[in-house]
Amino acid sequence: MKILVINCGSSSLKYQLFDMADESVLAKGLVERIGIDGSRLKHTRTGQEAVLVEQPIPDHKVAVSLVLKALLDKQHGAIKSLDELGAVGHRVVHAGEKFSCSVRLDDAVMAALKECIPLAPLHNPANIIGIEAISASLPNVPQVGVFDTAFHQTMPDYAYMYAVPYGYYKDAKVRRYGFHGTSHLFVSHRAAEILGKPIQDLKIVTCHLGNGSSVTAVKNGKSVDTSMGFTPVAGLVMGTRCGDVDPSVVTYIAAKEGAEKADKILNKESGLQGISGKSSDMRDIEEGMKAGDARCTLAYNMLCYGIRKYIGAYAAAMGGIDVLVFTAGIGENSPEVRASVAEGLEFLGIKVDAAKNDFRGKERIISPEGAPVTVMVVPTNEELVIARDTLRIISGR
């Protein structure tokens, strides 16, 4: 069976086409900087050179249409007809407490996902647009939703509860949910495989750093705490999201600007974009910092400082740390960020070897030989996890 996996982020769309007979990747690609200047599609059919399409990509509907066009291309595509697709699996960010595992998508599930839009205003609309765009092009192809929140269902109540009146949890399900679960699941298990150790014996901190970023404490293979919360706006400084702030900052901004404008400010105008005043993309921030831009430098330092704090906190929560993993766009491709995060964490046994760290986008151990904590870069593969779940559900396994 051939399965297409769609992974829509707030400003990106990753995709992979799998032949599940051997889990081989027939084609893959990335649409990046959606809604940002410089948007483009990079498509690669396995065994061929990548093809780059640079054009304005204002939204995810346009991104999906470009993906399907690339897959069908006579020279660079991987299928001759859309009828070859047996199923489509989607990364879906937020399902509240409605779904604790992957499910086949139908009208009832879609209605539930739309109810969760206020919980993930940047991501759920993009996820839903991707699903609906595929439905329009492939009305008879089954689709499966794989939820970011599922991996974090193992958090203990004292980690996921907020100290607000209990009725808000009981009646409105106000709690920490956590996100990027598929990524944290994959890279923690892959780290254990690389080390040849049972994941049940390891204390791992995974840092998913991209336009959206989160840190997770994985103890004995289970998520026990994570930086994102009720929505993906909590935790680290992100591309356009503010991360952790005093709740009174929210009410203060809302009183000045109105609730709707405050929500937009905190989700779409804050983070790296809001601090730097230039961009939500870390590559632009690093370029600005190297050019001496003080606000880009501030944005960079705020992110790295926040990551360090969470690593220290989660080492304390787990009673130690054996492995530190960097993944996602920034984590995989910014040796500068990796080095900056590790700086000052030597007391935990965390150290980065400068020579080993001088690379981008590969799977590699970057800590010195014999270091107490193994520091690793593990490119995330959420798509494979989604493909496996999609096959399992469609096959009724």
UniProtKB/TrEMBL annotation:
Keywords: ATP-binding, Cytoplasm, Kinase, Magnesium, Metal-binding, Nucleotide-binding, Transferase. This is Acetate kinase. It comes from Jonquetella anthropi DSM 22815. The gene is ackA. One of its GO terms (biological process) is acetyl-CoA biosynthetic process. It comes from the Bacteria. PROSITE patterns: ACETATE_KINASE_1, ACETATE_KINASE_2. Gene3D superfamilies: 3.30.420.40. Its main location: cytoplasm. Its EC number is 2.7.2.1. The record marks 180, 241 as: Transition state stabilizer. Catalyzes the formation of acetyl phosphate from acetate and ATP. Can also catalyze the reverse reaction. The lineage of its organism: Bacteria, Thermotogati, Synergistota, Synergistia, Synergistales.
